[in-house]
Amino acid sequence: xxxxxxxxxxxxxxxxxxxxxxxxxxxxxxxxxxxxxxxxxxxxxxxxxxxxxxxxxxxxxxxxxxxxxxxxxxxxxxxxxxxxxxxxxxxxxxxxxxxxxxxxxxxxxxxxxxxxxxxxxxxxxxxxxxxxxxxxxxxxxxxxxxxxxxxxxxxxxxxxxxxxxxxxxxxxxxxxxxxxxxxxxxxxxxxxxx
Length: 194
Prior knowledge:
With about 190 residues, the protein is of the alpha/beta class.
């Protein structure tokens, strides 16, 4: 029999343990605001469930989170199956994001990467390409950040949690960041949340 009480309690405990990430959340929030104010954009990527988080972040920027504010440039590199299959076919799956960073990334942009392990080779290569091209890297990870940790300008790591709880914490992180971005860009007349 599934113990739903325990599942919910474990998820709540994992989120509550993330108070230690508050300073890095602030740093990430300010990085995003500074990037958009300077005319930069956010590129995001992840695999599987983490790809859904990358999509979520990008669409909330170009759409909106809670407040009516100008659209902000967010683009999920995992959103276009034609690019993924073309690059995967010609260069291998490890290059599906790095090639897009090479094509779309500019100095002053941010690359946000979502992973529960920090070891996905396609994300590590994307981070390496981003750093070489002058982009900042914001990494949402688990398990200490793996190979991605030393490549991150800001590391939001959820250590000691099961992969599902890492992803749940990443959702909380991205909602907190979006709350900050909304507040920074919404006109004073639009401060009423939807």
